[in-house]
Each structure stands twice: as C-alpha cells, then as structure tokens.
Amino acid sequence: MTGGAGFLGSHLIDRLLERGDEVVCVDNLFTGAKRNIEHLHSNPRFEFMRHDVCFPLYVEVDEIYNLACPASPIHYQHDPVQTTKTSVIGAINMLGLAKRLKCKIFQASTSEVYGDPHVHPQTEDYWGNVNPIGIRSCYDEGKRCAETLFFDYHRQLGLEVKVARIFNTYGPRMHPADGRVVSNFIMQALRDEPITMYGDGSQTRSFCYRDDLVEGFLRLMDTAPDVAGPVNIGNPNEFTIRELAELVIGLTGSRSTLDYRPLPQDDPMQRQPNIAVARDKLGWEPKVQLREGLERTIEYFRDFVN
Ligand code: NAD
Ligand code: UDP
Ligand code: UDP
Questions:
Q1: N or C: the chain end with fewer CB closer than 10 Å?
Q2: Would you tell me the crossing angle of helices 290-302 and 181-190 to the nearest 10 degrees?
Q3: Which intervals hold domain NAD(P)-binding (predicted)?
Q4: Other CB atoms within 10 Å distance of the CB of residue 295
C-alpha cells in the first residue's frame, strides 16, 4: 500500500492485518505520521518502507492500494509541482508494478475530479468542472490524469483496476493541523478560539466517517474483475459549512464564535455523492452519521489540545 502512514491508509492497514493479510506500507512521510503506524511495528505481517512513489519501486506483492498523495488543500498546495508528480508519476510507477506482477490495483481518486460541479448530486458519469490552471489544479488534474492512466492500463494492457472517488472523509488520525474543515473546526472549538468560516458558510460538503469509507474500499477491491469503477464512496448526507460549525460548537460545548474569512479561489460551492453504483455493485452504504462520527473524532483530538 502506498500512503499507508496517512489518515486513511493507516486504517486500511489495520483492517487488512486484522483479516490476516501481510502489508508493505510505502510512504515518504510527507503528510503521514509514524504515530499512525507505530502500533504495527511489532506485527510480523507489517513492513514499513520509506519511499517516494515518484521513483520506481520493485517489490513482490499480490495486490496494490495506491493512496499516496497529500489530501488537504494546505498540504497539496505547499509544493504543487510535487503534488502533480505524486499523482501522475506515482500512478505510472504503481501501474508499472501492477503490470509486471499481473496484480489488481486500487486507486484513491477523489470527488475533486468533479471540481465545482454543475450536476448535483454528483454521479460517476459526470465529467466535472475543473479549472486546469488554478491553485487546486495540481490536486484535481493530477487525480484526473491518474484516472486516465488507470483506465488506459486497464483497456490497453488488461490490468484489473479499482478506482474509488472518495468524498470528504473525517475521523480519528486526521492530522490536527491539516487545515481541513473538520480538523480546523474541532481544534478551534476545543481551544475556544474563533471558528474560521471561509465565505458565508453556505457552501456544502457531505462528510463520511473513515470506518465506513474503508469498508467501501475493501468491498470494491473484492468485486469481480469487470468492476473497474469509478465508484463514488462517500456519505450522501449534505451539510452547509455553517451547520457543521454549529454542530461542532454544540458537541464540544465551546465558547467559540464565528470568524468570517474570504472564500479561497475555486472552492466548490456544493458537493454530494450519488452512491447508487456503490449500493448496487458493492452492497455498501455508510452507517455512521455525522453527529456520532464527530463525537468520536472530538475525543481523538482532545489529546492534541494544549
Ligand atoms: P494523508 O495526507 O493523511 O495521507 C496521504 C499519505 O501519502 C501520507 O502518509 C503521505 O506521507 C503519503 N505521501 C504523499 N506523497 C507521497 C509520495 N510522493 N510518496 C510516498 N508517499 C507519499 O491523506 P488521506 O486523507 O489519508 O488521503 C489518502 C488518499 O485518499 C489520498 O490519495 C487522497 O487524495 C485520497 N482522498 C482523501 C480524501 C479525504 O477526505 N481524506 C478525499 C478524497 C480523496
Ligand atoms: N515500474 C516500477 N516497478 C516495477 C515495474 C515498473 O516502479 O516493478 C515503473 C517503471 O520504472 C516504469 C513505470 O513503472 O517507469 C511504468 O512501467 P511500464 O512497464 O508500464 O512502462 P515502461 O517501463 O515500458 O516504460
Ligand atoms: N473551510 C472553512 N474553514 C476552514 C477550513 C475549510 O470554512 O477552516 C471550508 C472550505 O472553504 C471548504 C470546506 O470548508 O468550502 C471544506 O474544506 P476542506 O479543506 O476540508 O475540503 P475540500 O475543500 O477539499 O472539500
């Protein structure tokens, strides 16, 4: 697995080890953290390799999960050229590895391929509305190009691919300073600091709890070879960012007030997955709703306050 020391990857590794698999975690620790995987080092079926996926990788494995890529805007905009390289060259290297090993390969794609969408909720057949030269493009276009590569290796070389389009996901092990809305709001609320609301807070997102998401990954990987995706994986319950702030303030009992800031360039106004394909092909739908997932995430973040 690439990106295995990150928020989602480390959970996926936990699930794979629980069911008896052996896991090689390949990560350059750019946004990942050793603390996310330190509980695994005594496990003989776990191996960590510090490696940047922009360079070729020669290992022997039975299947590949490709998750390596910074996911939060402040992280992927920190070195945008590296972000595109990670998505595109990383995909080429992992697809080359899968081709040599004749093994199936999973890609962590994103709802960002839909950009600021004109179709709502987003279905997999919508081609998206993405600015190719904006500040989010390194991530959005990098992931779009990676999808192109996955489907060309699939058509041209018969590789078995599994492409998931992940919608906003949150939960324990999110980086507390990753700048994403859930981590920012919880940390600010726990510290009684002002909640940074970008724009008027009327933009929407649909938040999926990480356990639901990882279950969707495993089910997609287990589908028949003709199911290549892309498949939306996310929670269709949509909230405005203002509603999220109010919920976080309520659940933490915080004295925080709202601090309105400018909306960043190209910030999508709405986002909600249509998960009909996931329901049909994976028999999957999310189980954990926002209030319950936030309560668990708030408990995790309490350790980072002070
Ligand atoms: P994360 O930043 O916690 O994890 C990404 C991991 O990739 C980190 O451990 C990082 O060190 C590693 N990485 C980055 N560049 C690398 C490189 N060049 N070589 C090797 N490792 C590298 O993010 P996450 O939330 O766990 O996201 C995992 C995947 O899911 C990413 O591909 C992301 O684009 C995708 N995704 C996540 C979300 C979400 O809401 N969390 C939404 C859509 C898509
Ligand atoms: N690659 C890799 N590990 C492997 C096999 C290939 O990292 O086990 C890389 C290799 O460096 C190449 C890329 O994957 O740049 C794409 O491989 P592919 O075989 O598709 O292309 P080619 O080598 O023919 O250019
Ligand atoms: N956002 C916000 N305050 C913050 C962080 C984010 O209002 O402190 C907004 C952001 O402008 C966006 C939404 O919350 O409209 C989700 O942002 P995030 O970075 O979590 O994810 P993405 O934009 O990639 O979906």
A1: C
A2: 60
A3: 2-297
A4: 11
